[in-house]
Amino acid sequence: MPWTNPTTSMLVQRMTCHPERSVLQRSRKPALSLPKGTCVFGRAAFTFAAILLLVAISLPTAGQAPPTPAAQAPPPVPAPLPPQPPRFLVVLDAAHGGDDPGGRIGDQPEKAFTLALSVRLRSLLGARGIQVITTRESDATLDTARRAEIANHANAQACLSLHASTAGSGVHLFVSSLAPTQSTRLPAWKTAQAAWVTRSLALAGVVNSALLHDGLTVTLGRAGLPAIDSMACPALAIEVAPDHSSGASGPGPGPDAPSLDDPDYQARIAEALAAAVLEWKTEPRQP
Ligand SMILES: [Zn+2]
Hints:
This protein is α/β, with parallel strands linked by helices. It is 37% helix and 14% strand.
């Protein structure tokens, strides 16, 4: 036994005080000893202090956490999901419809031409992976508020309202004439587009470039547009007219100018608009 047993220590202390020591006692010199001549009270105090020291050593340190069993391995952390591609959605609004035939385009009403263009453009965009919502897929009557409601509910990145006219030449692009304002959390319904006019002008620039790139004639303008004015997204009214500038007879109306009934002319316009939407999707400020 080491010299840490209190009982042994006390014995050793008593032996230390005794003048006649045995050989064994001398060979096992205690670790703790008192100088000769220490009084009885001093010995008792020293013994008591030694006991306290041994008890303190045997007790755990205050504030020290008791030993715990081996910590269990934490559950594996699931791998993060890959980032989702940003959502990009376009609303196509075939103007007029139902009780509203629009203008007269050759032997058909404007509402039929706009619906056919909307269907063709939806198909082209869908083939390019663009998500599309249309305001109508049939000869249905929709008021302007309903068209804006569809666009706003879709939270679209672009809304193209499609019109046709026999007046003018080429493609007319119209942006709302509302004065641009800062975005507000609760814009007035009939002027919601005011917060988006700047973005709509940027969209018009992209569409203009795509149409010009395809050799089409483009006219840019601003106009009061009830359906567009209520839309909270980049929005344009696109009015398609015969392209008098590309006929063999040169600029101006001519018998050989592409008419709105020309399938090739319709296809060119639809392809150019689809290219414009794809370009708009890559615009840096898209989500
Ligand atoms: Zn129209």
